[in-house]
Specification:
The chain is mainly alpha-helical. The chain has six helices and two strands. It has a two-stranded antiparallel ribbon with strand order 1-2.
Amino acid sequence: MSMKNWEKKVLAEPGAAKRVGDIEDELRLAAGLTALREREGLSQRELAKRIGVSQPRVAAIERSKNVTIEVLEQYVEGLGGTLEVNVIKGRRKVALIGGSNQPKRTTAAASKKSPPKRRSA
């Protein structure tokens, strides 16, 4: 059986198209996060230090398909960006997170800033 015929057979199985789509989404997210970090010229270790996690945690975020909004927001803010989540229905766009009509959320990374130093008398 040729590779092309095998591919047709596999894709003809029930649910195959959804599984392929899920894998594509996972790869797109992983490649997108990695590309953002690399464009900023940061290693996983450098980004980890910025957001207060370990380098293996950054690697896990970049390869995970189940990343929470909070983790994505922390990752993006560590790169100097702002996460926006929008719902688009027809010509209507509703900002759920970020955007001009939503207040900025405070993430764990932002709240980890150290308090001001007290001066000794």
